[in-house]
Every structure is written in structure tokens, then in C-alpha cells.
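Hi F.,

I've been meaning to write this up properly since the lab meeting, where we talked about keeping a consistent format for the predictions we share between groups. The idea is simple: the sequence comes first, exactly as it goes in, then the C-alpha cells exactly as they come out, then a line or two of notes. No screenshots and no reformatting. I'm using this chain as the first example so we have something concrete to point to.
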Amino acid sequence: MSLSKPLFSLIGTYLEQLFNHPVRTKSITACILATSANVTSQRLAGAKKLNQNSAFAYGLFGLLFGGSVPHYFYQTVERLFSHDLRFRKFFLFLSERLVYAPIYQALSLYFLTLFEGNSHGTAVKSVEKLYLPLLKANWQYLSLFVYLNFAYVPPMFRSISMAIISFIWVVYIAKKRRRFANKQAADKSK
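Output, unedited:
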């Protein structure tokens, strides 16, 4: 009982901030979740020393893009598809899967590589190598969660619920990117 009051107070404050300052709140939340997911991925991989550049890159990406881009995307599609449109949820789902997911996936691969201190050429190579496999995996593993998000989550909470789901996805992306970077480093040393 003694822990429930501070917890409910924290949740209440968070929801108040989400209502009054949605982009800022979602951006900070995305920053924390992306950084946590990257650190989790590194720990699961057995890293003895934390790659701070990678953790910083994921946090910066979450702060700059992880809150604002989903917020404005979900806001736009809510306006595009009227509430009396037949199969509205299906069209919302398709727009997310066929428009948002491909663009956001490319954006994330490119900027994460840049934010880690790599060159434009390295970022482009990363996108070329990882984009299609990650996009296919995204469509395969996250489509059900995206549909459930549109079907059952109120619009105010959609980007937050996807941020929580994205935590797992970011762990997966970080793992794939780390393998790619290790392979590139091994190829350079040959």
C-alpha cells in the first residue's frame, strides 16, 4: 500500500505531461526506452564493457525522432481516415505497415549509424545491407501488435504503446547492427 501512492502519483504526473506536452513527453520516453533497449541488447550479448557511443546514438535517435515522428504520423492518419469510414482500422493498419514502417526503418538505420560517429558512406552501407531483412522481420513480427494498437489503444497512447513494443524491437535491431559492424570490422582487418 505504501508504494502504490507514489506509483499512482508518478503515473498521474506522466499522464498529465502526456496530455499537456505530448511531443516532449513521448520524445523523452522514447529516449529512455531506446537507451534502455540498447543497453539491454549489449548485456544480453555478453558485452563486458558498455558501448557508450551506441547507447548514446539510440538515446539521441529516440529523443529526436522516437517521440515526434510517431506522434505526428498517428495524428495525421487519424485525420486522414474519417471515423465513419468502413474498415477504418484496417486502413490505419495498412498505412502504418506500408508507409510509416518502411520510411521509419530506413531513417532509424541511417541516423543510428551517423549518431554513432560513422560516416555517411558507412550509414548508407548499413541501410543497404540491413534494411530489407529488418523490414521483412518488422512486418512479420510486429504486424499483429500494430493492428492491436490501432484496434484497442486510444489515440493518445498509441505512440507510447508502440514505444514499449519497440523496446523489444530495438533490442533486435541493436543485435543485428552489432553483428553487421563486427563483420565489417573483421573484413577490414583481412
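Notes:
Helices lie at 4-20, 22-44, 52-66, 68-80, 88-115, 120-152, 158-189.
The mean pLDDT is 88.

If this format works for you, I'll send the rest the same way.

G.
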